Amino acid sequence: MDSQARNKDLLEQVYTRAFEYEQKYGSCPQCVLAAIQDVFGGIDDEVFKAGHSLAGGVGLSTNGTCGALSGGVMALCCTHGRPRENFANGRYLKSHQLAKKLYDRFVQEYGSCICSDVQKKILGRSFNMWDAKDYEEFERASGHKDKCPSVVGNVAQWAAEILLQAENAPT
Fold it and tell me: C or N: which end of the chain has fewer Cβ atoms within 10 Å?
């Protein structure tokens, strides 16, 4: 299998795993992280754990950044972020560049990085995830059947694509 076919296969695996994880388990950032962890490695369980409450725009508020996007940025930074031993040695622009690339692609697709705006785009309205009736409506609107899973799958695939490109980029 040539590298292009291998990469295509890896990207499909990441998308499928992220989509299925979001359907089954929720927590969009963790689903992105788990899919990339499964296919590429490089993400430890502490990072996975740290992503949990970034779901739903942070703490299910829906007013913050989409959790899938946050999880994608976390995945990029696991490989390209500033390590603690270099904390005092300036900014790590590589991770900022990769995160911006993912952010730009996300906003191009969904029009905003804010969870409630993404919900409006994919579901026609936003939902209060803390209100039991509204959450039921979210589920009835296929929130976890295919709507949010497709966002999660896309972000995981885009992050994986960026990782593969960065891996092959000259340093």
Answer: C
